[in-house]
Amino acid sequence: MSETPAFLTARLASEGEKIIAFFESLDQALWETIIYTEGAGWTVRGLLAHLVTSEQGFLKLFSGILAGGEGVPADFDIDRYNAGQQSKTNQLTPAELLEQYRTTRAEMIALVATFSPLDLEKQGRHPFLGPSTLAEMVKMIYRHNQIHLRDLRKLIQT
């Protein structure tokens, strides 16, 4: 496996810095712009909340898998989870969400830094990927952020 804990932590750090810099650069007027129209719709602020809450959930998921757990339940409903997390964070300001993102990403980097190469091979059920290794799940964290950032950039540039 080419991905090592050091490689993954470096990627998490560099991609996290890009997310922070992007959201810090946004004009205040853009925060309530709708980016996704599915369901109740997500604003730019709601997207940042999603990045925060999904990563907070992954911290718990990874710790559980490291302890021998199976991951999320087979009947896990990712859409229901995301909707619930949106309602829990709808009162947070962009500044509060950015601070939570910084803190959560630092916790993720610290956790992944403790992984051994054997830990990265441990398997569990990911809410989107299904059965996966921890290495695949960690990569999905920064790829997930990249996908949403790409969508947001497209919206802002048009």
Q: How would you explain this protein's 3D organization?
A:
- By secondary structure, the chain is mainly alpha-helical.
- It has one domain (5-157): Four Helix Bundle (Hemerythrin (Met), subunit A).
- 66% of the residues lie in helices and 8% in strands.
- It is built from six helices and four strands, in the order H-E-E-H-H-H-H-E-E-H.
- It has helices at 5-25, 44-66, 78-89, 94-113, 117-120, 134-157; strands at residues 34-36, 42-43, 123-126, 130-133.
- The strands form two sheets. A two-stranded antiparallel ribbon has the order 1-2. The chain has a two-stranded antiparallel ribbon with strand order 3-4.
- The termini are far apart.
**Succession of helices and strands:** HEEHHHHEEH
**How much of the polypeptide forms β-strand, as a percent range?**
5-15%
- The parts where pLDDT drops under 50 for at least 5 residues are none
Strand segment count: 4
Oligomeric status of the shown chains? single chain
CATH class: Mainly Alpha
How many domains? 1
Indicate the radius of gyration in whole angstroms. Answer: 16 Å
Can you give me a brief rundown of this structure?
By secondary structure, this protein is mainly alpha-helical. The protein has six helices and four strands.
Summary keywords:
158 residues; 4 strands; mainly alpha; Four Helix Bundle (Hemerythrin (Met), subunit A); two-stranded antiparallel ribbon; 66% helix
